[in-house]
Design a protein that fits this description.
The chain has 1 helix and no strands. The mean pLDDT is about 75. The protein has one domain. It is rod-shaped, with a radius of gyration of 20 Å. By secondary structure, it is mostly helical.
């Protein structure tokens, strides 16, 4: 029983780590696109 619980906990942490990694990666992707936008569109849109 104890080993099953440990295994379940391991898979839980694995899933959490994967979810966290994917969310960070997609977040970085969005930030990267946002950072590159001024160069693509010209930065007149970003100057106030």
């Amino acid at each position: 029983m104890g080993q099953d619980k440990q295994l379940a906990l391991y898979f839980f942490y694995l899933e959490m780590a994967t979810t966290l990694f994917l969310s960070i990666t997609s977040l970085r992707g969005l930030l990267f696109i946002d950072l590159n936008k001024p160069r693509i569109n010209g930065d007149q849109n970003y100057k106030l």
